[in-house]
TrEMBL record:
Keywords: Metal-binding, Oxidoreductase, Zinc. SUPFAM superfamilies: GroES-like, NAD(P)-binding Rossmann-fold domains. Belongs to the zinc-containing alcohol dehydrogenase family. The gene is adhT2. GO terms for molecular function: alcohol dehydrogenase (NAD+) activity. This is Alcohol dehydrogenase. Residues 10-339 form the Enoyl reductase (ER) domain.
C-alpha cells in the first residue's frame, strides 16, 4: 500500500510503499477513502506521544472508508460496509468498557499511535464489533472522516462533559478543527459562544460556525477580554488547542463555579493552572477524551436532521503526496484539512 511515514521524530514525511495490514482475529482492515489532518498527528510526529515506540511510523487516526477484510471472530461487519471508528479503539471487556466508558478503555489501541495509522490506503483496527460505526449512505466520506476524532470529541466535550445548556456563555480557546466543531455544537445547543484565537482567519471561520463574540488572543489578556464580554466570565470554557497558555486562559475565563474542559493535548512539561482561582471560585476542571462508538447515534441524528453541519468545516482536500507537508505546517491553514489517499469523494 501507499502510505505517508517517518523514520525519525520530526523528520521527513514521505510517501512510500509499505506492506498491507492484515486483520486481527477480532479486527478489520479498512480501505481508507478520507482521513483528517489533526493536531494529535503533529504531536505524534514530534515524539510527544509515548505510544509511538517503533519506527518507521504511519500517522493518522480519524478516517472513513469501506471494510476491506475482517477477522474470523468478527460477527457484525462484512467487506463493503461504509464505516468510521473512534480514534480510541476499545477492548470491549475491561471494567471501563463494561461500564460503557470505552473512550477511557484500559487496553485501548489507537491507529496512528499504538500502530500504523490512516495516512495510507489501508488501516487496521482492533475489536471491530466494538469500534466500527456505520456511515450513512448519504454522508460523504470526507465529512465522515472528521467524526472519528475532532467532531465526536467536540460533541462529547460540549454536550456530555461540559453539559452546555441554552443561554450559557461558552468560550472556545483555539479555533482549529476541534475548536470550530465545538463552536458549532455549542451554538446548536443554544449557547452564546465566544471564539478565541490568534488568527483573524480562524475567527472568521468561527463566526461562520456560529460564534457571536470574538477575542484575538494576540491583542492582550484573552481571559480578561472573555470576562468583560460575558460580564463576569463564561459558564463553560474549553481549551481546544492544548498549550500551557490556552489551558490557563481557559480556566481564567470562567465565572464563579464555571466548568473548564480540557480537550487539546498538552505536550510534556509543567502546565501552570491558577489553582487559587479554582479553589476560591469552586471551578470544575474536566478532561474529555473522544467518544465511544455506541454514543454516535445522537450526534449522527443531529447531522441527519440538519442541526449540525460538519461538512461546512472542511476547507481543503489534499492527496497523500501533500499530506506530509500539510502535517509539518499544522496550524498554518485555518479550518479542517482532509486527505483522500485514493480520489476525492
Amino acid at each position: 500500500m501507499r502510505a505517508v511515514a517517518f523514520d525519525i521524530f520530526g523528520g521527513e514525511l514521505d510517501v512510500r510503499e509499505l506492506p498491507d495490514p492484515a486483520p486481527a482475529p477480532h479486527g478489520a482492515v479498512i480501505r481508507v477513502l478520507a482521513t483528517g489532518l489533526c493536531r494529535s498527528d503533529w504531536h505524534g510526529w514530534q515524539g510527544h506521544d509515548p505510544d509511538i515506540r517503533a519506527l518507521p511510523h504511519v500517522p493518522g487516526h480519524e478516517f472513513a472508508g469501506v471494510v476491506e477484510a475482517v477477522g474470523p471472530d468478527v460477527r457484525g461487519w462484512r467487506p463493503g460496509a461504509r464505516v468510521t471508528a473512534p480514534f480510541v479503539c476499545a477492548c470491549g471487556t475491561c471494567p471501563s468498557c463494561a461500564a460503557g466508558e470505552q473512550q477511557v478503555c484500559e487496553r485501548q489501541t489507537q491507529p496512528g499511535f499504538t500502530h500504523w495509522g490512516s495516512f495510507a490506503e489501508y488501516v487496521a483496527i482492533d475489536h471491530a464489533d466494538v469500534n466500527l460505526v456505520a456511515v450513512p449512505e448519504n454522508m460523504a466520506f470526507v465529512t465522515a472522516a472528521g467524526l472519528g476524532c475532532r467532531f465526536a470529541t467536540a460533541f462529547r466535550a460540549v454536550a456530555q462533559v461540559g453539559e452546555v445548556r441554552p443561554g450559557e456563555w461558552v468560550a472556545v480557546h483555539g479555533c482549529g478543527g476541534v475548536g470550530l466543531s465545538a463552536v458549532m455544537i455549542a451554538t446548536a445547543a443554544g449557547a452564546r459562544v465566544v471564539a478565541v484565537d490568534v488568527s483573524g482567519d480562524a475567527l472568521h471561520l468561527a463566526e461562520q460556525a456560529g460564534a457571536t463574540h470574538f477575542v484575538n488572543a494576540s491583542a492582550g489578556d484573552a481571559a480578561a477580554q472573555v470576562r468583560e464580554l460575558t460580564r463576569g466570565g463564561a459558564h463553560v470554557s474549553l481549551d481546544a488547542l492544548g498549550s500551557p497558555q490556552t489551558c490557563a486562559a481557559s480556566v481564567e475565563s470562567l465565572r464563579r463555579r464555571g466548568r473548564h474542559v480540557q480537550v487539546g493535548l498538552l505536550p510534556g512539561g509543567p502546565t501552570p493552572v491558577p489553582m487559587d482561582r479554582v479553589i476560591g471560585q469552586e471551578l470544575r476542571l474536566l478532561g474529555s477524551h473522544g467518544m465511544a462508538a455506541h454514543a454516535y447515534p445522537q450526534m449522527l441524528e443531529l447531522i441527519r436532521a440538519g442541526v449540525l453541519h460538519p461538512d461546512q468545516l472542511v476547507t481543503r482536500t489534499i492527496g497523500l503526496a501533500d499530506a506530509g507537508k500539510a502535517l509539518a505546517a499544522m496550524g498554518s491553514v485555518p479550518g479542517v484539512t482532509v486527505i483522500t489517499p485514493r480520489s476525492p469523494l
